[in-house]
């Protein structure tokens, strides 16, 4: 990851932590003012938001470190590990919410529609929504799994909070106090699903998943258009690791071609690939024509 891009990702991660602490304070007040179990569970989810923001910050800072002797391919996958940790914290929060919801259902207690408390909760939701949109956008631009994971979780938080606020009003209007506990349980289900999705996507990333078919076709077209003088390119492999895209393939050249000429072809292909894929690590294995497989990209 380029230095400027990594610094931006780190600043965004710090912003997430600051927003998480602010929203936690606001939702904590709303839960205290109303005495609602559902709003308490919503505040508990914000505790997870702060923890996940800390984990994402650590991961983004670690992923920005340059490759070294111990990790010659870089620290990019640190962000995938962070997303797994975030998913686990989300699951723990869901279990705590289920506990509160269960006791609240069998022993329902009255809550009050404190206008200031509800207004503060709405304000916190608005802040979360704005930051979730910004975070998701920057995460995609920076190709940061940690920021994308944090943004997705915040969107879940926004949706669940809106549901809780509507439900609390309905519970007060109908007098069905146990609806408050039911809503808390639904919040737990929502964030549990969010945690599962994060863990699933992170595991896929840790398994060295290939780039999307559209980008792979673009890579193949670039190789074909810029391999003049070579005979074929085969065994094209790609993998995504955080913001970094790894590309490697075999390039077959005539047996009589000089090393300098073959190197020039490789340089030309690499230049064009880097124009299309900003953060790419490219490995090209040059082979003589007797190694041709007559498959893959046949240049001549």
UniProtKB/TrEMBL annotation:
An example molecular function term from Gene Ontology annotations: zinc efflux antiporter activity
Compartments, as annotated in UniProt: Cell membrane
Membrane topology listed for this record: Multi-pass membrane protein
Primary location: membrane
GO annotations of cellular component type: plasma membrane
Source species, domain of life: Bacteria
Xref: Pfam families: Cation_efflux, ZT_dimer
Coiled-coil segments on the chain, per record: none
Keywords: Cell membrane, Membrane, Transmembrane, Transmembrane helix, Transport
Domain Cation efflux protein transmembrane, first and last residues per copy: 16-207
Residues of the Cation efflux protein cytoplasmic domain: 213-289
Regions that span the bilayer: 12-32, 38-60, 80-98, 118-134, 154-175, 181-199
GO biological process, alphabetically ordered: intracellular zinc ion homeostasis
InterPro entries: Cation_efflux, Cation_efflux_CTD, Cation_efflux_CTD_sf, Cation_efflux_TM, Cation_efflux_TMD_sf, CDF_Transporter
NCBIfam families, sorted: CDF (TIGR01297)
Family: Belongs to the cation diffusion facilitator (CDF) transporter (TC 2.A.4) family.
The protein, known as: Protein p34
């Amino acid at each position: 990851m380029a230095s400027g891009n990594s610094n931006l990702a780190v600043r965004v991660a710090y912003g997430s932590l600051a927003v998480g602490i602010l929203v936690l304070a606001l939702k904590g007040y709303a839960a205290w003012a109303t005495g609602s179990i559902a709003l308490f569970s919503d505040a508990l989810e914000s505790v997870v938001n702060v923890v996940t923001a800390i984990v994402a910050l650590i991961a983004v800072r670690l992923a920005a470190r340059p490759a070294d002797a111990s990790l010659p391919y870089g620290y990019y996958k640190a962000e995938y590990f962070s997303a797994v940790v975030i998913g686990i914290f989300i699951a723990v929060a869901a279990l705590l919410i289920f506990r509160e919801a269960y006791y609240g259902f069998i022993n329902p207690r009255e809550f009050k529609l404190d206008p200031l408390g509800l207004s503060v909760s709405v304000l916190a939701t608005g802040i979360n929504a704005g930051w979730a949109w910004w975070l998701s956008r920057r995460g995609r631009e920076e190709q940061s799994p940690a920021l994308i994971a944090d943004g997705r979780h915040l969107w879940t938080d926004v949706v669940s909070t809106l549901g809780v606020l509507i439900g609390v009003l309905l519970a007060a209007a109908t007098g069905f106090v146990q609806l408050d506990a039911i809503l808390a349980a639904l919040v737990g289900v929502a964030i549990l699903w969010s945690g599962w999705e994060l863990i699933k996507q992170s595991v896929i990333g840790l398994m060295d998943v290939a780039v999307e078919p559209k980008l792979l076709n673009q890579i193949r077209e670039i190789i074909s258009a810029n391999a003049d003088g070579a005979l074929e390119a085969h065994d094209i492999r790609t993998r995504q690791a955080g913001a970094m895209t790894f590309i490697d393939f075999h390039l077959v050249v005539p047996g009589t071609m000089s090393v300098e000429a073959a190197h020039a072809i490789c340089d030309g292909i690499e230049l064009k690939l880097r124009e299309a894929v900003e953060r790419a690590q490219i490995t090209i294995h040059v082979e003589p024509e007797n190694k041709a497989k007559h498959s893959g990209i046949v240049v001549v």
